[in-house]
């Protein structure tokens, strides 16, 4: 098998190389690149089975790999190397893209490689173009516009706890305990954030940020208690879907 390591940090590349040599010296041929462009050139030339790809690199994020390869060239097992926060890791989990957190844990590294080898041996190499685009969209631009009476607020998705319909207006509950009343219906925000896996609509009147869930109550039907102690109902027709979502995340 062939493996390509793409990371701008020489120390990180050498660590992955050493781990591969220790465990798989007889079965894996390795190649290195210090940036995404040269890494994609290697991928085109060597057609690797596994690619280890750092996210935070100068000039181009590793998440942009789909911009440099044709869809039929994304036919390898991809393992992202990331120092991103928990929110970003949730996005990876939801999109089924493999990842390792820095600093790299040896046991997790072995597990990821064995999983990749198993998929290769079983022929389970799937095109990850859609998954890659989904993750990139989630992480590359993490802000939205809220039009308020005094002007416009540019708000990070991370700072929004929930949206609540209020007629043709929408209440936006913020992480700093403030509430913004926006002159747009909830539908506007649902459509704007439908590609963001971290947001979910458990009820026709609410859109929530899943990272701010604190408790799931079963009293008088299902209710979600958010970190600001606001209680959000889960519609009966959404209960099974919501429970499946929670099980896939945690």
TrEMBL record:
Keyword Signal: no
Modified residues (4-aspartylphosphate): 54
UniProt entry keywords in alphabetical sequence: Phosphoprotein
A Pfam family the protein falls into: Response_reg
InterPro entries per record: CheY-like_superfamily (IPR011006), LytR-like (IPR046947), LytTR_DNA-bd_dom (IPR007492), Sig_transdc_resp-reg_receiver (IPR001789)
Organism of derivation: Flavobacterium terrae
Protein name: Two component transcriptional regulator, LytTR family
Domain Response regulatory, chain residue ranges per copy: 2-117
Domain annotation HTH LytTR-type: ranges: 144-248
């Amino acid at each position: 098998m062939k493996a390509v390591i793409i990371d701008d940090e020489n120390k990180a590349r050498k660590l992955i190389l050493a781990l591969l040599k220790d465990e798989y010296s007889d079965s894996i041929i390795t190649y290195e690149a210090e940036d995404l462009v040269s890494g994609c050139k290697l991928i085109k030339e060597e057609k690797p089975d596994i690619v280890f790809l750092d996210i935070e690199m100068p000039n181009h994020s590793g998440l942009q790999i789909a911009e440099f390869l044709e869809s039929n060239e994304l036919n390898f097992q991809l393992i992202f190397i990331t120092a991103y926060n928990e929110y970003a890791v949730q996005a990876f989990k939801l999109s089924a893209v493999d990842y390792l957190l820095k600093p790299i844990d040896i046991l997790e590294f072995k597990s990821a490689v064995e999983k990749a080898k198993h998929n290769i041996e079983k022929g389970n190499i799937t095109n990850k173009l859609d998954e890659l685009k989904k993750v990139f969209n989630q992480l590359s631009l993490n802000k939205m516009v809220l039009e308020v009476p005094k002007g416009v607020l540019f708000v990070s998705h991370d700072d929004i706890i929930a949206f609540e319909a209020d007629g043709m207006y929408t209440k936006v509950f913020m992480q700093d305990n403030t509430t913004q009343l926006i002159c747009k219906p909830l539908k506007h925000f649902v459509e704007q954030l439908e590609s963001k896996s971290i947001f979910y609509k458990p009820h026709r009147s609410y859109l929530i940020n899943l990272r701010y869930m604190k408790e799931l109550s079963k009293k008088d039907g299902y209710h979600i208690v958010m970190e600001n102690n606001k209680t959000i109902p889960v519609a009966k027709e959404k209960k099974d879907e919501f429970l499946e979502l929670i099980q896939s995340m945690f």
